[in-house]
User: Fold these one by one.
Assistant:
Number 1:
Amino acid sequence: MSCRRSTREANTIELAAVSKLFDGGGEVGALMRDLDWSRTSLGSPDHWPQSLRTVVQIALTSRYAMWIGWGPDLAFLYNDTYAHMTLGAKHPWALGRPAREVWSEIWPQIAPRIDKVLRTGEATFDEGLMLFLQRNGYPEETYHTFSYSPLPDDAGDVAGNFCVVTEETERVIGERRLASLRILAAGLATATTLTDVFAVVELSVADEPRDLPFALVYVIDDDGRRARLVARAGIPENHPAASPAIDLDAPGPIWPIASVLTNPGIVTLDLDPGASPPFPQGPWDRPPVRALIVPIAPQGPSRGSAVFIAGMNPYRPLDETYRSFVGLFVGQIGAGMASARRYEEERERAEALAAIDRAKTAFFSNVSHEFRTPLTLMLGPTEDALASGGTLEREALETVYRNELRLLKLVNSLLEFSRIEAGRTQATYEPADLAALTADLASTFRSAIERGGLTLDVDCPPLPEAAFVDRQMWEKIVLNLLSNAFKFTLDGGIRVALRAVDGQAVLTVADTGVGIAAAELPRVFERFHRIEGSRARTHEGSGIGLALVQDLVGLHGGTITVASRSSRSRARRQRAGGDAGGHRHAGLHSRSGTLAR
C-alpha cells in the first residue's frame, strides 16, 4: 500500500513539474503549452528527460536569443527573443520541426558546426558570420555571433545542440555604410574640380559595391532637355542603362530623370529581372531588383542639376535605414560639387585679377611712354624760347600744338574707355544714312593717306534702309579703324566698304599693311595690348584704340573680328557691323556684325 502511494505521489509531482515547464516563457511558452507534442519527434513533455526540461526552462526565461535542437532530427525549440529577432515569418511554424527544415537555406553552413558538437562534445564560436536567411519570404543578408554547445541527456551522452546567438546585422552593415561615407568624404575633401568629384564617386562605389552594386551620375544641361553621364561605377560603358546622354523629352527612357526633376524626391524603380543584358550584380550572385533615383540637391549657387542613380543590394530590404544611407551619400556628392564649383570660381577670379594686374602693368608702361614723349617734345621749344627771351617760332608752336593734340586725344580715349567700362556711356540711337555718314568720315582721312603715298578706296553704296546708330560712336569706330590701318600701312592702299548682308550692315576696312602674326590675332582687341616689333609709321598708342572699337560695336549689338594673311602684301581687313534696318531697341538691333583685319 505504501508503495502504490509513493508511485502515485511521484506521478503527481511529475505532472506538476511538466505543467510548470513552460511557465514564464511568454508567447513561445504559451505556444509550447498548447502544442500537440505527440506529432513531433520529441513526444509528450512528460516523457522528456530532465536535462531537456531544464535547458528548455532556462531558454524560455532568458532574454538572450536561444534555440535548442534535440534528438536525432534536432527538433527545434526556441524562446521569445529568438522568435522576434531571428525567425521572422518562420515563427511559430518552426516550433518542434527538424532543424534541417527550419534552416534549410543555411544548412550547408551550419550543419558541419552542429555535427562537430554532436560528435566531439566541443563547442563552436562564430563572430559576425554572414548567413543568407530566408525568414521574410526572400533571402536576406544577415550577420550573427553565436556559439553551438553540446546538450547531454540524463545519461550524460550528447543528445542535442544548444545555441546562444546575437544578431549583428545592423551593426555590421551600419559600419560598412559608415566606411563608405568616410571614404567618399575623404576623397571629396581634396577634389577641386567637378571632374575630381565624379572620379571620387566612381572610386567610392567601386571600393564598396555591396550596398551600391552599380551607380550613375547624370548632370542636366542648362536648357533642361538633356542629361549627360559624368560618373559610372559597376556598370559597363556599353550597357544600355549607362547611356552617355539621355534626351529628357524622349518617351520611355530607362531612367525617368525628368519626373524626378519635376517632383524632387527619392524615386524607387523596380528593375526588370529579365532585362537583356541583365543589370550588373556587383559582388552578389543575382542582379538588383530595385534602383533609387535621387536628385542631387544644389548647395549654394548652382549652375545646373544632377541626379544619382544606383542599384540596391538584392539581399537587403529597402527600409528607412537604407534610404537614409543613400541620402547621406548623395548629400556628400552635392556638397562636393558645390565646393568644387566655388573652388573653380575662386580660381577664375584669381586668374582674372592676375590678368587685370598684367593689363594694368602694360597700360601704365605704355601710357607713361605716351605722356613722356609729347611732353619732352613740347619742353624743348619752350625751354629754347625761354632761354632766348623771344617768342616761339611757328615751327616750335606747331610742334607744341601737335603734341598737345596728341595728349588730348590720349586723355579723351582713356576717359571714353573708362566710361564704357564703368557702364556710364549712354548711346543715342537715331536713324541715319549709314553709307553717306561712313563715306563722309572716311573722306576726312583722304588727304593724310594720299600725303603718305597711299590710295584710299571708299565703296559705300546706299543701303536699302536707314540704320539706327549713335553718330558719335560710329564716328569713333570708323576713325579708329582708319587710323589703325594708316599707321601700319607703309605702301599700297586702304579700302573702306559698306554693304547690307542679310539685313545687317557690314563695314570692312582693309589695307595692304604689314600684317599681324597668327599668335597675335587673338589679342588684337585686348585692352592695353600692343604688338611689339611691328613696323609702323609711328609707335604712338596706349593699346586701347581697338579695344574701344570693340566696346562701341558691342553697344550697337554687333561683333568685331580680325584676319590677316602672311605675305609681302598681307591684307588687313577690319569690319564692324549692326542691323541696317531693324528698330531702336537697346542700341542697334542686330544679331551679328564682324570686324576683320
Number 2:
Amino acid sequence: MTGALALVAGAVLLAAGSLRLSAQMAPRSTASFVLGAYVIAWAQLVGVLWVLSLLGRVTRWALLAGLAAVCVAILIDRRGWSDVAARFRDGASALRRSLEDPLCAVLGVAVLVAFGYAVVLGLSTPQNDFDTIVDHLWRAAVWRENEAVGYPRCDCAPYVNAYPPHGEMGVLATTVLGGGDRYVALVQASAFVALAAGVTGVARGLGLSRREALLGALLVATLPVIALQASTAQNDLVVASFLVAAAALLLDTGRGAPWLAGGATALAVGTKVTAVFGIPILLVVAFLAASARRGQRLTGVLVGAAAGAYWYVVNWVEAGSWDAGFPYEEVEPGVAAAIARGLRSAVQLVELPGAAGRDRWLYLIAAAVLLVGLAIAYRRRSRTAALGSAAGAALIAALPVLTPDVRRYIDEAYVELWRAVGRDDLAVTVGRDITRSASNVTWYGPLGALLVVAGIALAVIAARRGIVPWLGALLTLAPVYWIAAMSAVLFYQDAAGRFLMAPMALAGATWGLVGRRRPVAWGLAGIAITALALAVLNDSKRPSGLPLLERPAPESYWATPRWRAVGSEVHVPELIRFVDERVADDARIALAITASDPGYVLLGPRLRRFDLLSAQASDAPGASWAFLSPLSRASGAPRLCGAWERSQEAPNGWAAYRRVRPRC
C-alpha cells in the first residue's frame, strides 16, 4: 500500500466513526457537529497511538488496524447515518445561501485560493522553519524510529521531551502512514479549516446570522500568520483550533456538547503549554452561556483541562519538575516590566507583512479597484450615494499605506513614555521588521490591528442594542487578556504573535457585524485580501517568486533545491547536499549529535532509519553511513572501528563515515 493510500484510508476510518459519534451526541448547529467530529477524530488518533506505543507497535499496519477496530466498534450501531447526511445537506444549503452575499463570495474565493496554495506548498516543498525542523519533526522522527510515543532517553534534544505531545502525534501519524514527511503539513491544514468552523460556531452561538458568522470566519482566515501556518508542521493552529472548538461547543445547547468541549479542552492542553491561558476564557464562556447544563459545561472544561495536563505529570516523574527544562529566558520581575512587555506586544500588532518597498502601494491599487468596482455595483443608486459609498470603502482599504509611519510614531511614543517615568532601562525600541512575512514571526497584519480595536467598540454597541449578548463583547477582549497574561508570566518575544491565534479567532467571531455597514465591510475586505496575498506570496522563508511592484523578486522557493531551502535555515546546506547526493533513501544512518544539532535534516524526505551513537560506541550494526557533528566531536564523539572509512569531505564541519566492512 502506498503512503498516499494508507493516509487516505486512515483519514476515512477516523472520519466515519467520528461523524457517526458526533451525530449521536447531537450538537445542534452544523458547525458544532463538524467540530465535534474533529475533536472525536483527534481523540481516537491520540488514544490509538498511546495504546500502540505501550506495545511498541506504532507502524503503518498496526495503526490502520487500531483505527479500523475503533471505527468498527463505533459503527456497530448503524442508526444515525441519516442524521449525518441531513447535517451535511443542511450545512451545504446554509453555506450556499451565505455565499449569495457578494462580500462573502469574494472573501470566500480569496480564502479558498490561499488555502489551496498552502496545501500544495505544504505537499510539494520541504518544511524549513527552524523550530519545525529542530523540535516538532525531530520529535516525531524519534518516536517513529522507536515505534512508540514517549520519553526517549537521548542527548539529541532533551528539552523536546518536555513539551505536550498531541501536535507531534498528529505529525507522527502522517509520517507512519505516509512513509515520509510529504504529508506533515496536512495536520495544520486541517486545523485551519477547523479554526474557521470554530469561529462560525462561536458566532452562531452568540446569535449572529449565518452570513455574519461566515463573514467573521473568512476575515479571521485571511489574517497573515494564520494563513501562513496552514502549510507548516508547526502546532499553533492545532492548539488554537481545539480552544476555539471548545468555546463553540460550550455555546451549543446540544446534550453532548459539554463533553465534546471537555474533550477539545483536553486536546488543547495536551498540545501546547500556551493553551493554559485559554482555560479562564473557556470557564467564562461555560458560566455565561445558556443556564441549561451550566454545571456540565464547567465540569467538562475542568475535567478536560486536568486530563490534558497528564504530560506535566510525566515530566515530573521523568525529570523532577512539571516543565522538565523548557528553554526559558529570565523574566524580569516587577509590575513595570510586565506592563512594558505587554505594551511591546501590543505594538507588534501594528505591522504590514509582505509589503516591503513598493509593494506597500498595492493597497492603493486595491483601493482603486474597489472604488471602481463598487461605483459600478452601486450604479442603480443616486450618483452621490454610489460615489460616497465607493469612496468610503476605498478610503478604508487604503489605510494600511500609513502603517509604517504610524508604527514609527508608536515606537517613539513607547520609548518616550518610559523615559518620562524614569525607566530608561525599559525605553528600548520594539524592533522587528514589520514588513517581514514568515510563519513564526508574523502577527495579524493591518486588518488584525484595526479589528482588535474597532471590534471591541462594535461588539459593545451591538451588546447594548441587544444584537449579541455581553459575552460577545467580552470575547473581543480575549486578545487584550491574553497579552496581559503572557506578559505577566513569560519573557518578551518578537515572535509571540502566533500564540494569540485562539484569542484573535474568538474576538473575530463578532467581526461579521461589520457586514451591516456595507462600505466599511468592503473596505475591510479589500485590506484582508491584499494583506493575505502579500503575506503568502512574499513569505520571506518560502517566497513565491512572483514579481509584484518591488523588484527584483526573490528566487522562488518552488525552484529552490532542498539542500539550500532547508540548509540555509539550519546552517548546514552542504551537509544536506552531501547526504542527498551520496546516501540512498533506504539506507540506515548513525548519528552522533547534540541538542543543538539539526539531526532531522539528515533523514531525507522519506525518513531514513537511524541510530543515535553514544560517546562510547564504536560501531552501529545495520548502518551504512555515520555522521558526527562538530559539537559532538568537541564534547566527546564516539571512535568508530575499522569497519568505517572517513570521507575526505567535511560538509559544514561534520565528519562523514562510510561502512567499508560488514562488522568490526
Number 3:
Amino acid sequence: MDDQTARQTQATTTLSATIGREAPSRGPYRTLVVGPGEPFSVRRDLGGAQPDRFQPLVCFVQLSDLHVTDAQSPARAEFLDRFGDADSELAPLLGRIGVYRPQETLTAHVVEAMARAVSRVERGPLTGARVQFALSTGDATDNCQSNELRSYIDLLDGGRIVSTNSGHPDRFEGVGAAEHFDPRYWHPDGSPEGEEPDLPRALHGFPLVPDLLPSTLRPITASGLPLPWFAVYGNHDALFGGTLFPHDVLADVALGTVKAIGLAPDADPLHLLVNNEVGPSPALWGLISAPTRRVTADPERRPVTADEWITRHLTDPSDPPGHGLASAPAGRCYYGFDAGIVRFLVLDTVNPAGGWQGSIDEAQLDWLEAELIAGSGKFRDASGNRRRHDAANRLFVLVSHHPLETLMNDFSPNGTRRHLAPTLERLLSRFKNVICWVNGHTHTNTIRAICQSEPDSSGGLWQVTTASHIDWPQQSRVIEIALDVTNGDLVIATTMIDHLGLVDPRSGPLDEVETLAGWSRELSANAWQGRVDDKPVGRGAPLDRNTMLVVPAPFEIPT
C-alpha cells in the first residue's frame, strides 16, 4: 500500500468510496482498505413508482450512539464482558455483552473525526439541497456521567478543548494498562515482563500500538458540527451501563477510589446479565461485592439525572435553543420542531426505572397522538372510524433512540403504565402522513418498511436505524426527503458517511485525531464478540445503507 492510499480518508459519502476489511490473510486480524463506492438501491416495499425527478423538502444528518466514554471510571463493569467470549459456557445464552471494547478510549476522537466529515457534506447527494441540521439520536454518553455529558456537548458545539481523561491527570488507570494486567483486555503497549500475550493478541491477532493509551489522555480542540443540532435522550445517557438507575449507591461507586475488577466467587453472572433488557440487574452488576483495586477519584464522574441532562442542554448557547429541548414540556425530553412541511417529533423512549430496551409513558403517548391529530386533516380515531377536521396537513418524521421493535421494556416498580411497540404501531397506523422513523440503539444499519395495516392499502412508514460511532462501521447518515414531481410519490434518500479517520492508522502520528480515530475504526472491525459468519455486524446489507425509499404521498404535496 503506497503512502497516499495508506493515509486516504473519506472526503464525503460512501457513494464515492467505501471502507471495508481486507481479504483474509495469515491471521484472524484484518486491516482496512478503500473500496469502490456504493450506489443508491431503490426500495419500493411500500408501493410507489420508480423515482424520477426530485423537489427537496428537507435534508439533515443523523449521528447516533456516540458513546463518549470515560474509560477509567470505577462505575464501569468491563469484567462482565468475558462471559460473552467464545470460551464462556454462558456465551450462547448472553451473546455480545458490550461493556468492554478495545477502542473505548478513542470515542472523542471518532466524534471529532465525524464532525470534520460532516463539515464536508454541505448538500444532499441526491437532491443537492443544503444540509439544514443534525440529529444526535441518543446514547451520546456511555455511562450517564457529568464529564461525559460535558465532552459530548463540547465536541458537537466545537471551539472548545475536550478531554475524556479523568482521575489521575498523568496516568491511565483504566483496563488495558500494564500496571493492572488482565489477559482478557487488549494491552496496546504489550504485556508486562514475565506475562504471556493478552488474549486479544494471542487469539485474535490484535497489534501492538506503543504509546496509544498516553495519546488518548491528551486534550483535543473540537471542530464541532457546522450545523444546528438536536439532542435525543438514550438509555446510556440516563442509566449506568445503559441499564442501571444511578441511585446513591452507584453514585458512590462512580465518585470513589474503588474499581471492581471481577465478580465475587458466589456471584451468578447469568443472573446479573440475562434480564437487563427489561429491568435493571438485581445485584447492581456485582459492582458492590466484587474484588477491587484502587483508582484516583474524580468528582466530575457523578451521575447525571434527567433534569440535569435537560438543564445542561438548555444552558448551552445553541441554535436551536437547548438543542431542541427548549420546546419540550417542562422536565420532559420529548418535543417537536418544523422544517417546512415536515414536522419532526422527538420521542423519549428511555425507561427511567432501568433496563436497556425502551418504552414510553402515558403522558408522552397522549402528546404524540395530539401532535399527529393537529397535523392531519384526515385520520382514523382509536375505534377505526375515519375523521376529518380543519387542520393543515403535515408530513411527520419520528425521531427516537430506540427502534420500534425494541420498545418492549414495561418495567415499572411504581406501577405506572409503560407503552410498548404494539401500542405505538396501532397509533401510527391511524395516520398515513407519518412517513419515517429515525433512530439508533442497535449499533447496526437497518432499514425496515412498516406497512399500513389496512387491507389492500399501500403506504406506511420507513424505519431508518443507523449504526453507532463506537462499533463497526462507525458511520452516520445524510437523510433527504423529497417529492418526486413526476409521479407525486415521496422519496427518502439515505447515504452513509464515514468519518475522517485514517484507513491505515499506522501511516499517521499518534498526536493526530485522524490517526486515533482510524485506530478506533480498525479495532472495531476486529471485535471478537457478536460476529456472524466470522464477520463483525453493524454495517448492514446494501439495502440498509445508500437507498432511495419510496412512499406514496398521503396527500397532495405543494410544488
Number 4:
Amino acid sequence: MKLRRRAFSIVARLFLVLGLWIALDVAANAAPGPSGLAGYTVTHTALGPSLHFTDADYVLADQYSIPAAGWRPDRAGLTLAYEQLRHQGRAPKVLWTRMRFDRAALGGGPLAIYTQGNRDRLRVFLNGAEIYRNFAAPADEIVAWYEPILIPIPQERLRAGVNDLTVCIVSRYDLGAGTFDIGPNSILAGKFRWMYLWRIDIPRKVNFAMVMLAYGALLYWIFGRGKFEFLVIGASSFLWFLSSYDFIFSGSPVGELTSSVLPAYLLFLGAGGTLLFCSEFVEFGHRRWVLATIAAAGLLLAGLHAVTGSNHLADGAAHLLAMALVAVAMALTVAVWRRSRSIEHLMLALILALFIAGAIHDFGRLWYVHAWNGLGFFLQPYDGFILCIAYLASFGRSSAAAFLSLRQLNADLEGRVIRARQELAVSEEKRRELEVASAIESERERLLREIHDGIGSNLVTALRIAEQQHQPTSTIRTLRRALSDLKITIDSLEPVEGDFVALLANLRHRMEGDLREAGLKCLWRVADCRPLPWLDATNALHVLRIFQEAVGNSLTHAGADTLEIGCHEEACGGRPGLIAYVADNGRGFDPEGPAAGKGIQNMRSRARALHGQFECVAGAGAGTRVSIWLPYVRDEPAWRPSKSP
C-alpha cells in the first residue's frame, strides 16, 4: 500500500508541476520583451550577448530572388497553413522573411545563427548574399522542420551597422518561418548540441529500440504461436515509430504533403493500438467494442478532413482523439487495478498518465495552438518508447507465468518419472509381444515358401506327368483341384490388411481357369467397401473356404451357365457391415433337404466363426444364392441360430 500511495503521490506532483510550469510559460509568452530593442530580445551571458528575434517582415511571393517590395511586419515564427495557400495551386509556395539587427548589439568574436522549425526547404541570406541552404536541388523533398540548424556567419558578410538577415522558405505544404537566434558561436553551438540531443539523437535511438521490440514481438507471435497481445504490441509499436517519422528524419520518400499529413493519422492509429493492447492486457472481454470505437473515431477523423478540407483542423482532432483513446485505456487499466491490486496494472496506468501529460504538453506547442513553448521540443518521439516500457510488462507477466509453470513442472517431475517407468514396463511387454508376432510372421513366410516350393512344386509336376501320360480325366481334375486348393490356402496366408475386395479378386483370379473350362460366364458385381480391421489370415481362410465351397457346388451340381460374384455395404440389425454372395442360374435345390449335405453346414459354421450371418436361398429351377454378411466391427455375433443346422 505504501508503494502505491507513493507512486500516486509522485504522479500527482508531476501533474501539479506541469500545470504551474505551463501557466508560467503562458504568462512569459504573453509578456512583452525588453523595451528599446525593436524586433528582438537580448540575452546577456558571460560569453557575450545573443539576440532572439520576436518580430520580422514577411512577403509571400512566387519568386526565388529577394523581393524589393510587399513586406509586412508580423510576429516571428509565422506559419501559413495549407488552406491559406490554395490559391497558388500545386506550384511550390515561397515565403520570404526579413530580420534586421545592429552589429553593435553583439560582442566580438565568431558569430552564428541558430534556427529551428522552418518548413521546409531553407535558404539564408546575409546582406543579400546566400550563406546557407539545406537542399542541393530545387526539386529535393525536405521534411526538416524539427531539426535544429546552426549556421556560422562569415565575418566578411557583416556590416558595421544594421544588417539584413533574409530567409527564403519553399514548400508545397505549410510555409513556416521558424525561430532565429544570432550570437556568439560558442553559445549557440552549445544550445544547438543540447537541442539536437533531445530533438534528434535520443528520439532516433529510442525509436529504433522500439522498432526492435516490435520486431521481436511479431516474431514471437508468428513463430512462437503467441497470444494476440503480442501482435498488437508489434503493430502499434511500428505505428508509433512511423508517427514520429518527421521528427527524426529530414528526408521524405513520400513527398512533403504526405509526410506532413500522415503522422497525425498514424498517431491516432498508434493510440488505438495502445487502447487495444490495454484491453488485451487487462483481459477486457469486449474487444469488438474497442475495435468498433477505434474504427468509428477513424471514420470521423477522415470525414472531418474530407468535409472541411482543413488539414490542421483534422490534425488537431487526431491529437485530441489520440489523447481520448489513451485516456480511455488508462481509465480501463485503473478500473481493473482497483479490483486486482496488481503492480503490473498500476505501472501501466502510471505510464499512460505520463503519456497523457506529454500529449497535453505537445498539443499546446503546436503552431496553430501556440499556448506555450514548454520544454522547447516535442515529447511525441518519446511517447511510443514510454508505451513500449508498458508493453514490457506484458512480456514480464508472460515470463513470470513461464517461471511458475517451470516450477510446477519440476514439482511434477518425480511423479512423471514414476509414470514413465510404468509406461516403459508396459512398452517393454508390448515390444516382446511384437517380437513374438514378428517371429510368427517370419515362420509363416517360411511355411509359405516351403508349401509353395515343396508341395506346390510336386503337385504341378504330378499334374504335368498325368497330362503327358494321358491319365484319366478324374485324376487330372483331382490334381488341379488340389493345386487350386493349395493356392487358395496360400492366398489366405498373405496379408490383405482387411481389404475384402482384394481377397475376392484373388479368389476370382485363382478360380477363373476352372470357370472358363467349365463354360461358365462369370459376372463381377463388386462395389467399394471399407476394410475389415479383423480380417486376418485365419478369418480370410474362412471367407475363401465359404466362397470356394459355393463356387464348387455351382460347378459340380448346379448345371448353370452364368455365375455372379459380388459384394456391397449393407447394414444388418442397425450394425454397419458388408454382404458378399455367389449366385448361379442353375437347377437349384432344397437347402434344408438331404441334398444339402455337409457343405452347407460347414459354410454356416465358418460364418458363425466370423461373427457373421450366412444365408442360402435356392429353389427348383430358380438357381442358388449363397451370401454372408460380415460386420465392420466385431463385438457380439450379429446372428445367433435358433436351432442347430
